[in-house]
Amino acid sequence: MLKEFFAKIKLIYKDKSLSRKILFVLAALLVFRFMANIPIPGVDHAALSNFLNNNQFFGLINIFSGGGLSSLSVVMLGVGPYITASIIMQLMTMMSEKLKALYHEEGGAGRKKFMQYSRMLTVPLAAIQGVGFLMLLQQQGILPNFTTFDLVTNVIIITAGSVLLMWIGELISEFGIGNGVSLIIFAGIVASLPSSIQQAIFTFDPSMIPTYIAFAVMGVVILLGVVTITEAERPVPVTYAKQQRGSQTTKGVSTYIPLRLNMSGVMPIIFGLSILLLPQMLFQFLGTIDNATLQSVAAGVNGFLANQLYYGITYFLLVFLFTYFYTAVTFDPDSMAKNLQKSGAFVPGVRPGDSTAKHIGDILSRITLVGALFLATIAVLPVIVTSLSGLSSLTIGGTALLIAVSVVIDLIKKVDSQVTMREY
Questions:
Q1: Which CATH class is domain 1-204?
Q2: Rounded to an integer, what distance in angstroms lies between the CA atom of residue 69 and that of residue 332?
Q3: Quick check: 235 and 367 in contact, CB under 8 A?
Q4: What is the DSSP letter of 251?
Q5: Is the pLDDT higher at 66 or at 345?
Q6: pLDDT digits (tens, 9 = 90+) for 131-167
Q7: Closest Cα partner for 258 from 228, 225, 232?
Q8: Are 231 and 298 in contact (CB under 8 A)?
Q9: Could you report the per-residue pLDDT of 291-318, keeping only the tens digit for each?
Q10: How far apart are alpha carbons 148 and 291 in whole angstroms?
Q11: Nearest to 423 by CA among 21, 24, 10
């Protein structure tokens, strides 16, 4: 196994095209980390650090900003607005037949146009989130009271930073290896590890050893569980009929379609947290407005989401539903059935066409149920441990670990596929 690993490393080093892709990813992530350390003017870093350490909600947002929020950098919004825009656009495909056709049926040109709509929607979302963040942080005394000109200037800067980060993420996806958005989030998690380890050493409490052990066990469970579910697949047997082409007869071939237990990867976790964080950010901002009605509504919503039980149930349901939703958006049984029929293939014992689409759809629904339940359970496991231990940092750490493991698995698989392709 070790010999095979080093052989593949050697092959990556020798392959100039693959090496360039990996170096491009590293260079793009270095640019991102450089921008993540350029703060906007007037930040009280001591107050900011204290605020983030005592606020679970902003700690989770810091994960999605790729660590940019921890220094209130020019990319403090991270890829959050782009993720939210993508969710909104994909939800729209369920309600608009025109958008659904654009996404599924019009090929690469239609997909590019669809992505362009997502990019355009990112700009107003980033501006709205930027205004909300800045005004909320002013209320907390972390930022000075800006003049209108200063506020508009800073909103433009952080909106531009979010759009630039979106562009870097798409460049990574196009010219590098892996999903650019996921890798940016992963880079932020990895960059925060040294400070997290240092904080853990300085705040070590011998009486909390059972909690630390529980956290370590939870980490191992998440690691093993995510790897197992990501690798698990259900093969659907397919047979290609004999084909007569002139004087040549092609024999029938039996193969299979691998349907993964969790086709959506880490995206349901990212989508679920994005949807969960959006109302929290909105109502925390509304709670700072001098209006009794708004403050009452904001207090009620924030109180509901602050309750660990309600938060955990909502998070579980969102991850579960988004697993099904993302699978439905990215995998179309009808298209697969049509392609099989066109190529002269069929599932043994199932009629081609609609019956094949229904057969594949039924299998996909059953295996996605297992994957969705497991993924949702793993997602709320840190919340359960937090409620038992009382340490809010475990929720943040568990979520970060889950995202990091999923991204690393996806990246390794894509590098491995590139290496295998070049071997042949």
A1: mainly alpha
A2: 38
A3: no
A4: P
A5: 345
A6: 877 877 777 777 777 788 888 888 898 899 889 989 9
A7: 232
A8: no
A9: 777 778 777 777 776 677 777 788 888 8
A10: 21
A11: 10
Please determine, for residue 370, whether its predicted confidence score (pLDDT) is greater than 70.
yes
Query: Would you call 233 helix, strand, or coil by DSSP?
Result: strand
How is 60-108 classified by DSSP, letter by letter? Answer: HHHHHTTT-GGGTBTTTTTTHHHHHHHHHHHHHHHH-HHHHHHHHTSHH
Task: List the beta strands (DSSP E) in 130-285.
Answer: 233-240, 243-245, 248-250, 253-260
Per CATH, 1-204 and 210-424 having the same topology is answered: yes
| Angular region, 219: left φ>0, alpha ψ -120 to 50, beta rest | alpha
Q: Which helix (H) or strand (E) holds 249?
A: strand 248-250
Domain boundaries, the chain: 1-204, 210-424
Burial zone of 38 (CB within 10 Å; 0-12 exposed, 13-18 middle, 19+ buried): middle
Phi, psi of 235 (to 5 degrees): -80, 135
Q: How far apart are CA 64 and CA 182, in angstroms?
A: 9
Q: Give the model confidence (pLDDT) of 38-52 as tens digits.
A: 887 777 667 777 776
CA 324 to each of CA 42, 168, 407: distance values in angstroms, whole numbers, following the listed order:
44, 29, 20
CATH annotation of 210-424: 1.10.3370.10
Classify burial at 73, counting beta carbons within 10 Å of its beta carbon; exposed 0-12, middle 13-18, buried 19 or more: buried
Residue type, 20: R
DSSP code for 127 = H
What tokens appear for 141 in the block? 């005394």
